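Before relying on records like the one below, remember that each one covers exactly one chain. Contacts with other chains, cofactors or solvent are not represented anywhere in the record.
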Amino acid sequence: MRRIYLLGMAAVVVVLSGCGATNSTTFRSMSAAYREVVESYSNDNILINVVRASQKMPVSFLDIPSIMGTGNVSASAGISSTVYSANPGSFSGFLQPWSGAVGLANYIPNASMSVSGGYTFTQSSLDNATFMKPFLSAIQPEIVGYLSANHAAPKSVLYSLVVDSIDVVTDKKDVVASFVNDPAKEHYLDFQRVLYVLVAAGLSVEPTFMKVPQSPVMDEATMRASMGMFTAALASGITVDEIATPGRPKRYQLVRLLPQFRMCLNRTDGLVLFGDSLAPSMYCAEAFKARAPSRTATELGKLLAGSGDQTYKNLSINIKLRSTRNVFDFLGQVVSMQNAEKPTIVKIFNPEALEAKPNSTAEDFPPVPLFIVHKNQRAAKMLTALEYRGATYSIPDDSDSFSKEVMVLLSQLLTLNKIAGSIPASPSVLVK
């Protein structure tokens, strides 16, 4: 009897101790499911808006500002017994065992457990002025620098998305040549070639500082006498700028340095490509290590060094950047062209891949489709797929295009547009 009792208690302990492990397993599976849902949610959000843009429809974005997970584990355990007595009606007879009983009692352990869990999340619309203002504004060079620095995609892919046009301008502000990033235009190939040349010339984003005056110009005596008053200002990021004028004593002024970003070229590669045709201001201030002439520059040629028989000096290259909304419009155009009756696939060359292989040529790295979206086609492996207005759209999960890199860049662009206040505090839809 004691052995049965101990075995019963051990079974109860095992059941109760298993609750913690079950709870942990349940939480892990719920978390994994949540990650997969959020990933699909983000990919679908991007694809549906590219498809909307391809059909000239308004774009609309949703987000999940909060999520709450619930997980419940309840367990109960006990022991039931049946007592066999000679005379249950009297106290003495109750304690006296019945002659046919094996023991005084029969002990039966019992235990039960139930597990439940789920998520409640809020879904909010980003159709508000706080989100739309940066979404419709031109992308700042600073953001292009962020996207370029994390190497999420080749620069030719990034610039193909964010660059709207390239103008070559003289020092007299005359436009020598203009190249528009529009795949439907007849001279789109010219834009691509110019873009590849700029990538080969080390096109990048450089931080600079603009001086904003914070005080009048002062002579040295006034400056020294006022230093005590300027202590708090100097501690808040304001600095003293020395103004040197030939033939006059040095003067001083308090200035605040505001960071700015500009697009510029690598001087070493730029001189190989353009000779002395570009203005010195087109080159980055940072000193680059000298290296052998770029093979990409040799293959593509000096496209901007002259026009016809005329050679220019002090040329500037003005790069106009798109808004994030225009990036979706551009990709919508790409999708519309590839799913037309006479399909046209927009392809991108990658000069960086050519530079990375010492003994390769341009033939070793043919152009690759920029972005692929299949309409009413089911690939064996898909990155994401959805239905819109009676048709199925999907992005293949392969390495035959830059679709994955484009999705990453779009996700990062959208995230950078979600400034404080763009996601409403109160949900528009509560999903349980």
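Residues 209-262 form one domain.
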